[in-house]
Amino acid sequence: MIDIAVVGDSATEQWLARQAQKLESEGLRCRFVHREQGLGNARESDLWLVDLDGITPGTLESLGLNEQTEKSPGRPWIAVGRHFSLETAQKVLSMGAARCFGKPLTPRALAESCRELGIGAPFHGAALAVLEDREAVYQDIDGALTGAGFSSARLADLQKTLEALRWQAPDGLVLSHYPESLSLRGVIDLLRSFPELTGVPVFLLRGITRQGELLQAMSAVADVVYIADVSELPEAVSRRLNRRPTANSPPRRLFQKLHDYEQEHRALHLHAIVSKSDRSGRIIEVNDRFCEISGYSADELIGQNHRILKSGHHAPEFYRELWSTISQGDVWRGEICNQARDGSCYWVSSTIVPYLDQSGRPYQYIAIRKDITHVKRAEVQISQQRELAARLGEAGAELLSVGWQDGVRGIRSALTPLCHLLQAEGILLDLHQDYPFLKDWSWVLPESEGMPALWIRTTDSPAGDEGPICQSIAEAPLRTNNVRVGTMSLHGSAGAMAETFSQRGLVDLLANILVGALARWQREYEHEIGRERLRVAQKYSGIGTWEWNIRTGSLYWTEQIPVLFGYSEGELETSYDNFIGAVHPEDREAVETAIKRTVEDNHPYRIEHRVVWPDGRIRWLMETGDITRDEAGEAIRMLGVVQDVTEIREADLKLERQAILLNMLHDSLTAFVLEGRFRTTLDTMLKKLLELTESDFGYMAEVLHGHDDKPYLRIQAITDISWNASSKEMFSRVGTDRFEFRELDNLLGACIREGKPVVVDPQSGISFSHLPPGHPEIRTFLSVPIFIGPELVGTFALANRQQGYDEKLIEFLRPFSATYGVIINSQRMLDMEEINRRNLVRAKQRADQANRAKSEFLSSMSHELRTPLNAILGFSQLLDTDSDLNEEQQDNVQEILKASRHLLTLINEVLDLARIESGKLDLSLEAIPLHDLLEETLTLVRHLARSRDIALHVEDTRGIRVTADWTRLKQALLNLVSNAIKYNRAQGEVTITVGQHDENWVDIRVSDTGPGIESSRIPELFQPFNRLGAELTHIEGTGIGLALTQRLVELMGGSVGVESEVGNGSVFWLRLPSEQGRGAINTSASPVVQPHSHSGQATEVPEQSTPTVLYIEDNPANLKLVSRILQRHPGARLLTTSSGAEGLVMARSEQPDIVLLDINLPDTDGYDILRTLKADRGTETIPVIALTANAMHNEVRRGLQAGFDDYLTKPINVDELLVTLEKYLR
User: Fold this and answer.
1) Where is the Histidine kinase domain (predicted)?
2) Under a CB-based contact definition with an 8 Å cutoff, are residues 437 and 520 in contact?
3) pLDDT tens profile 107-140
């Protein structure tokens, strides 16, 4: 930059500010000096620019120009003004002004003037030719020039000067001596006759010219500078060379050359490689294609000889022949192998054409080339590829035989033949994945004994290992399961083989071989490092320790401490300030207080605090420590342990939030169960949910379906975000059919359509673009569907959570979703129960009405029948006491008594049955001694047994007690024993046995030797008024006894069963709770239980604890079989029925632990029973197992799909049935 001081007034300063940028672009650095300040004490500059506007010639001297001229002789200055009077011009020139400029003065004009005056940076590096044959004189000239940064060349005579200057023109010519035979004008004219020397300035040294020649030469020849003394030569050269034309003003003939170039360029094909050279072979022009293929830029090529592209492929004779051809003016054609900048070689088919001057001598050469590299390479690639593949196969086979201990030598040995072929000097394995066995290897194997060098570099490589210094000739990534684990590269001299190796994918094959070997070696190595691995794992357990010398203040910590603070090992300098600086600002006071309390008060040091990592993340650390004190009790050292507990803190926070959520859900569910307020519960849940998730607003909706089965939303709870009167009125309709969304082809219905949560955030590209005017903005949004099983029952949505919504939050809210679904489902069940309750109330009212009518009828019948029966039975008894009656009359009386008593029994049984069915039979349950009860019962039937010649056998039952009603149990036993006598064969037997079924139950079995009952008729036994055809015989009976017996026993918490085989008699049994098993009673009816007359306390009926199996089956043989099978399962209670309808009733009342169900029942289908059981809330959880003869695969599949918990086929596999029962009864 040229330093210029601009002297003037405020107008000058404004001009300078306006032109500052342009002045700087011209290389001018200008500063303003006010003229009132004067120039006497101003610092020196390269040039003074003085604005004369407003200055008279008389006041010029007051500026201090004379003082500056005396301080810096020869320092130029320039005057500028709008008008110059003659007097002013003479004055400034007399004071040393170099130029006078009229305004306006442009920055370019000022810059040109500086160059003309030789002001600025010296023209360093210029080369001058010195015509001087005297050595001593030349040395003086050369010393002056080199001292100023110029170079010179001595030319001893004029002939050599002309030859040398024609080939390479200098920047200037110094004439110190010339032949006496020539005049100075003749010498200069001779030099100017050559075009190359036309513009070269000539410097004449004083004393070389003869009388009169100097004036003649300088007046006739341009660009000649006279130098009075050698010491002035450098400054004169610098001034003159700085005035040479710049590249922006080329000579006229340059435009002609450019025009010629454009014409020639049009004739060349766009894809040709073109260059131009001067007569000496130096490149003067190249096209873009040349630069692309060579790798050099045009600036790097121009001025260079074509030798820069020599590849060494051709012999020197090849180039001599080429140069000889073109230098003679002939065209040369041929193929040349060149070397690009990156060292690669390329082949071109070249045509070199010389440009000839008027004398027929070449003055330029143009070379047009075509790239034929691919043709040359194709000739050798196939054979190279085959040979390389063979070497790869050999290498792979050798590596298979090498273990991990010898892996490093095995790699080098296996790859040596391949490296020789590729001219590779070394192999580099740069591994990203940690291969533990590498630590036992040598990191570097230098080249030796004809084997290549091998470098292994990982993140754990030893410091100072620089790896190969030669270039990479082939490289490929090492991948395991598509994950990059490192890089393999071969280093050496690039060649055709290496190029083929890379381009044909062979290098990738080598990489796969090495990856396979590394993986195999890693597996081998891992087998041997169990204990070492444990030690390393403990090292990285995330615990650091520190020690603080309290007296000296020095602090020591292990390498893990910086890691806990977010730094790499060794990155954080050990100091107390760095420790405190890493602590979270909000926790620093607490940490320092804890340390102080430990030191001063011997308080245990234990604190959890946060640290801020360099990347801004916050972690939680737990520190514990203790103090070491000297004999005087002074603290001298403090030891501490630091552990990262971030995960624990986050887990605690998560548990805390989960606890808040679960407590909220528990309170909401409890409130719903106790109060049954559906919408109030949802309002509370929504409010708590918004607080928990830090959301602005949201809603909870129920999914309903219209008549077209199309889903729609009914809003049950919503945040009131009303923005106007109409919206406020809309929000008041929450929970009704007037606040519903039926059009769900939008974001509100997205989760319903997709069946999964929908998240909207700024990154998703989804927005609520059609909100009503005034509606609050929705920035983030979450909508979650609510399912009960496969059924979509509801949805809830949240909006405007600052940190957005994600999968973690959705997972966190799963309990909320489940609870909300339960509440919706429960409300629906309650609604359904209310409907059912109303239906039941109406049904009960009808049933009560029917019962009242029946009771009135039975009461009337009882009265009407008992009145005449009373007379008949009374008079019969009187007759029976009359001793005057003859035998025939006595027999008639007995028949009347018998018939009367039978009729009375019939009436009582009908009334009892009616009372049981209406639920109005009173019982008094108590512990009854069976021995006494049986004796009382048998007393009543012994006469009947004797009359029919039936033997009665009773086991000893002393000490056995059951829980029952004395009267009703005696009535039930009397019915069974009477039937056993009546339906027995002549001289038959009736046996009564009592046995403990398990610790909770007692079985009373009444066996007879009668004809038995067909198994198909057994289910009809307990039907009222059904005597199975006995009404056609002489045996008295009503068909009510067994039905009444069954009802009575079940009311007492027991059960009745029968086992019979045609020809082998029958066994009827009663199963009643034992005195110890009182807790097992679960009566199937609902009697009013009153204490017995001699019992002082009421007896409660607790829930049944014995496992119960309900078997619904119409085949007696199957019933008997399952009964026998269940005898192998101690403690199980079997209930049986052959009716599907009765089975449903028993399932609801008895609540069995498992249901065995035959599919083909006479009254209904097993699938209908299954659906009914699963749809009933009281029985939906009871396991149902199919036990059927439908054994086809499609039938089994259908059964399991229908919902059977298990599907067993007949014939029954006993073990399979027991295992299945055990699974569900456990």
Assistant:
1) 860-1076
2) no
3) 888 888 887 776 765 555 678 888 887 888 888 8
- In sequence order, what are the beta bridge partners of 715? 701
* Homologous superfamily of 1107-1226: Response regulator (3.40.50.2300)
* 3 state DSSP class of 365: strand
Fold of 260-371: Beta-Lactamase (3.30.450)
Closest of 1116, 1108, 1172, 1117 to residue 1140, by C-alpha = 1172
Locus of tokens 């070497």: 391
709's torsion region: left (phi>0), alpha (psi -120 to 50) or beta?
A: left
Listed residue (620, 596, 415) closest to 517, CA to CA = 415
Choices 3.40.1000, 3.40.720, 3.30.450, 1.10.10: CATH for 385-532: 3.30.450
More confidently predicted of 1182 and 183: 1182
Residue 484: both structure tokens together = 């990059």
pLDDT tens by residue, 784-841: 999 988 899 999 999 989 888 888 889 988 998 888 888 888 888 888 888 888 888 8
Which residues are paired to 102 by β-bridges? 81
Average pLDDT (163-176) is 75
Side-chain-side CA neighbours of 1121 within 13 Å: the count stands at 15
CB contact at 8 A, 371 and 382: no
Look up residue 1074 and give its DSSP letter: B
Give the tens place of pLDDT for each residue, 847-894: 777 766 665 666 555 545 655 665 565 566 667 767 788 888 888 878
Nearest CA among 160, 15, 130, 137 for reference residue 80? 15
- CATH number, span 2-116: 3.40.50.2300
The residue among 1118 and 99 whose pLDDT is bigger is 99
Q: Alpha-carbon torsion 192, 195, 200, 205, what sign?
A: negative
**Pairing verdict, β 2-8 and 47-51:** parallel
User: HEC string of 979-1031?
Assistant: HHHHCCCCCCEEEEEEEEEECCEEEEEEEECCCCCCHHHHHHCCCCCCCCCHH
CATH class of 127-242: alpha beta
- Domain at 541-644, CATH class: alpha beta
CATH class for the domain made up of 652-812:
alpha beta
CA distances from 407 to 399, 439, 484, 641 (A): 8, 12, 21, 42
Phi/psi at 12 (5° precision): -65, -40
Cα–Cα distance list, 78 to 5, 92, 113 (Å):
10, 9, 9
Task: Please provide residue 882's backbone torsions phi and psi, each rounded to the nearest 5 degrees.
Answer: -80, 120
User: What pLDDT is recorded for position 1047?
Assistant: 86
Q: Give the pairing type, strands 543-549 and 635-644.
A: antiparallel
Torsion 1109-1115-1119-1125 (CA) sign: negative
What sign results for the dihedral spanned by CA atoms 34, 35, 37, 39? Answer: positive
Chain region(s) in the chain for CATH 3.30.450.20: 260-371, 541-644
Asked if the model's pLDDT at residue 723 lies above 90, the reply is no
- Between residues 684 and 398, the one the model is more confident about: 684
Beta pairing partners, 783: 758, 797
Place of tokens 């020397």: 197
| 948 — pLDDT class (breaks 50, 70, 90) | confident
First to last CA, the chain: 102
Least confident of 530-544, 895-909, 932-946: 530-544
Q: Which residues lie below 8 Å from residue 1131, measured CB to CB, with a gap of 6+? A: 998, 1106, 1107
Strands 362-371 and 345-356, bridge-based pairing: antiparallel
Tens of pLDDT, residue by residue over 67-98, are: 777 777 667 888 898 877 777 888 888 887 88
Confirm if 330 and 354 have CB atoms less than 8 A apart.
yes
